[in-house]
Amino acid sequence: MLPRIQRGVRWSAASLVALAACSRRDAGEAPARPPPASPSAVAPASPEPKRGGGKESLRGEERQRLVEQIKARGVESASVLQALRDVPRHLFVPDSWAEDAYQDRPLPIGHGQTISQPTVVGAMTEAAAPKRSDKCLEIGTGSGYQAAVLAELCGRVFSIEYLAPLAAQAERALRRAGYGPERVALRTGDGYVGWPEAAPFEVVLVTAAPERVPGPLLDQLAIGGRLVIPVGARDAVQALLLYRRKAPGPSDASFEKRRLMAVRFVPFLGDAGRDTPAVTAD
Q1: d(CA 109, CA 196)
Q2: Strands 201-206 and 135-139
Q3: What is the mean pLDDT of the chain?
Q4: How far apart are CA 211 and CA 228, in angstroms?
Q5: pLDDT score at 151
Q6: Are 148 and 177 in contact (CB under 8 A)?
Q7: How wide is the angle at C-alpha 150 spanned by C-alphas 147 and 154, nearest 5°?
Q8: Is the pLDDT of residue 86 over 50?
Q9: How do strand 135-139 and strand 156-161 relate by DSSP bridges?
Q10: What stretches of 195-248 show up as alpha helix (H) in DSSP?
């Protein structure tokens, strides 16, 4: 059964484009504010329960209000909403933005990048439909927030970040929030090539838009596995696609493909694999 997000009951095309334009890499969508003295620094350490905090942790009431907004905007999966309730988003933003951590909008995290709008995180996670038995691959660690949400739902998460300073920043945030390497494995590198030695994956989630679906990411998808990825030209309206592997092999017949919504993400960063065969969005 495909995720409820595809039914189009609550989501208008205009609102989905507006939401997805707030990709974690789209720094231009973040609200204006004088930059902090150290834009790459996350908030200073403070006590926080393990595994993302839970309802009893700091700022739980703010998290609950945010989840109610996300639910009202169309995310319906109870498990995804609970994951968003459990993950302490304020640990994944710079100290100068911590007071805004539970507003439903993107925020700067340094290095010209942003943490995604929580509704976008919820919508993409719901489309991927992760389960506790799944092994998940994320392309584009960013702040680490999406990886933390996946870690609440998957057996283990593997996450790749192209920008080395951002990867180090995300690792600090994830470990501080209680997501150790046994739950979230991290790598700095080109997401086009995926993580072949850890494949196959039941879930692959991509947070920036290539012009074509990288072949290695489809190759690393398990039978029954789901790939959620925005695909399209730079600076254009793109398509958020869901691929589900039905059978072994690289042919189109091995995959069920669904177009979920119109989106706008910034380009996928990376050099490897640009000339390898890939499945297009059409």
Answers
A1: 29
A2: parallel
A3: 82
A4: 14
A5: 98
A6: yes
A7: 130
A8: yes
A9: parallel
A10: 215-219
From 137, 140, 135, 139, select the one nearest 115 (Cα to Cα).
140
- With CA atoms as reference, report the closest residue to 4 among 81, 87, 67: 81
Whole-number Å distance between alpha carbons of 102 and 197: 36
Between 112 and 222, the more confident residue is 222
Strand partners, 205: 138, 228
* 3-class DSSP state of 226: strand
How far from 203 is each of 67, 193, 217, 225, CA to CA, in Å? 23, 16, 10, 6
> Which entry of 23, 96, 116, 159 is annotated as an active-site residue?
116
Q: Tokens in use for 194?
A: 């995926």
Query: What Cα–Cα distance (Å) separates residue 43 from each residue in 93, 94, 96, 125, 191?
Result: 7, 5, 8, 25, 27
For residue 211, give the DSSP letter: S
Kindly report the pTM of this predicted structure.
0.81
User: Can 77 be counted among the known catalytic residues?
Assistant: no
Determine the Cα–Cα distance for residues 173 and 82; give it in Å rounded to an integer.
20
Structure tokens at 147: 């990886």
Q: How many domains does the chain have?
A: 1
- Look at residue 60 in the predicted model and tell me its pLDDT: 86
Average pLDDT over residues 104-125: 90
Q: Is it the case that residue 237 has pLDDT exceeding 70? A: yes
Q: Which two tokens stand for residue 182?
A: 């046994």
Instruction: Report how far Cα 220 is from the mean position of its chain's Cα atoms.
Output: 18
Distances (CA, A) of 107 to 95, 175, 184, 253: 11, 20, 23, 40
Looking at residue 155, its amino acid is G
- The whole domain housing 173 covers 4-279
pLDDT one-digit tens code per residue, 132-150:
999 999 999 999 999 999 9
The CATH number of residue 37's host domain is 3.40.50.150
